[in-house]
Here is the input.
Amino acid sequence: MKKNLYLLALLLLVLAPWSAQAGKHRSHVIGFYNLENLFDTYHDDGKNDYEYLPDGANNWTDAKYAKKLQNMAKVIAEMRKDNGVWHTVLGVSEIENRHVLEDLVMEPAIADAHYQIVHYDGPDRRGVDCALLYDPTKMTLVESESIPFTFEGSKIKFDMTKEEQANFRTRDILMVHGIIDGEHFAFYVCHLPSRLGGKGVDTRARGGEIVYNHSMEMMKKYPGIKCVIMGDMNDNPFDDSMAKHMRGRKNIKDVTPADYFSPFWSMLEAGYSSLYYRGEGNIYDCILVNYNLANAPKGTFQIQKITRKKFYGRVFSKPFMTNQSGQYKGTPFRTFSNGAFVGGYSDHYPTYIVIKK
Here is the structure.
């Protein structure tokens, strides 16, 4: 009996390292999804959310809110089905508050992911913020920060007066610092200023400048850290906010330690789109990675080719997420169309990358 116990203990000791290794996740999905106005049915003090109330312009009832939550969860669950794993990190935008995210992560379709939430209330007048969902079994949260959008210290020439700048309100940029399998990561979630009225070129450039400068400081503070910038940029990868101020590069071979690799640039040129603006396909839902992740040392996390084994990113779309007929055939099936609730998903497709050791 004692001999058998001794052999069992020895076997467990030998297998322990293998068991621990098996518990590590060698591949991770990192993505972004603009949830298109995920509002609850209650008024938030100080926010212009009146159109998303039961008696507001959108007649935003509990039933419509429940349908919206189910739809968002269905998309996230479908990505899990395709990839075989839940996202380790999923950045989101156009969410009203933490409450809507708490409701979302409890949806039956994705409850098994046990997502944790990082969110700060921001200054946007409509009340929409950026946030991040993460799998706590795969990433350990170290710190987070809501980076305010300011004009101070910028090298950009702005069209707005100083008074207009002081009154300007937009989404903060969210930074989340975490550790994945022993490696440090900084995730930036952005929703840069709108194109409404053909405006915002200089403020989107400023957004790019802010996130780039902050990430450079993180790289100085944590040598070797792997940085991922994601979000609804309201710009394509070749626009100034992305190519000049975030230093996004189309080709991975051209990326230096001062640059970011912008994988959705070549995908846009190949005909992929994450949304349509004025009838034209665009990829505003971008993800960029720094040199440390684009050209990582062997045995550490590196971005992978995942679409046709040619592109380093994916625009996730399925027929149920897409208009199948009519004026908007082939474009994302959104929540509202021409002012009417149509029960769709979002006016954006989610995007993601995969990293692997």
